[in-house]
Amino acid sequence: MTTEKAPSKEAMDFARLRGYGPGVASAMDAFAAPVVQNLIELAAAHITVTLDRDALRARHEKMVALAHTVADKYDIYVTESFIDTAKGKHRAPTTHARLELSEAVDAMLAALAADAKAIPADDDGDGDNDTREILFGADAKAGEDR
Q: What is the CA radius of gyration of the chain?
């Protein structure tokens, strides 16, 4: 009794249409199985890379918005300081603009710190299926080129 798996119906139909026997159908199945598995893994890697890209884009957009806020608050503060210099006295709008600038900088620094903390240490070869491991196997090490 043999332990070989019978060829699939599709492989048998293909072999029969071309005049080949069941041996060719079995060989086709043996060849197709790893190819299909590789295609599935490649599709999974593509999805992972796409999700990583989308998450990075969202984080980037948030940081850019915070940087614009800081720049706008800085412009207001500089304008108010210039008016103070021209009038020769310190005014409440300048103090308020300085406080808003300080709050915007603090918000940006907090967001940068939270973002840095949230980013996983990627491609570290620990088998947790990060991008490099999906593309190059579980033995992939950080910084290793293939």
A: 30
Q: How far apart are CA 106 and CA 134, in angstroms?
A: 38
Each domain of the chain, given as residue ranges in start order, spans 9-136
C-beta of residue 80 within 8 angstroms of C-beta of residue 94: yes
- Residue 75 and residue 88: Cα distance in Å, rounded? 20
pTM of the entire structure?
0.50
| Assigned token pair, 72 | 């706008």
Question: Which stretches of the chain are DSSP H helices?
Answer: 9-17, 22-87, 92-118, 131-136
- One-letter amino acid of 123: D
Q: Which of 45, 46, 40 is nearest to 140 (CA)?
A: 45
The whole-angstrom separation of Cα 58 and Cα 97 is 29
| pLDDT of 129 strictly over 70 | no
User: Are the beta carbons of 104 and 69 closer than 8 angstroms?
Assistant: yes
**Alpha-carbon gap, residue 141 to 33, rounded angstroms:** 28
CB atoms within 10 A of CB 130: 19
In the predicted structure, residue 115 carries a pLDDT above the cut 50: yes
Structure tokens at 112: 């940068």
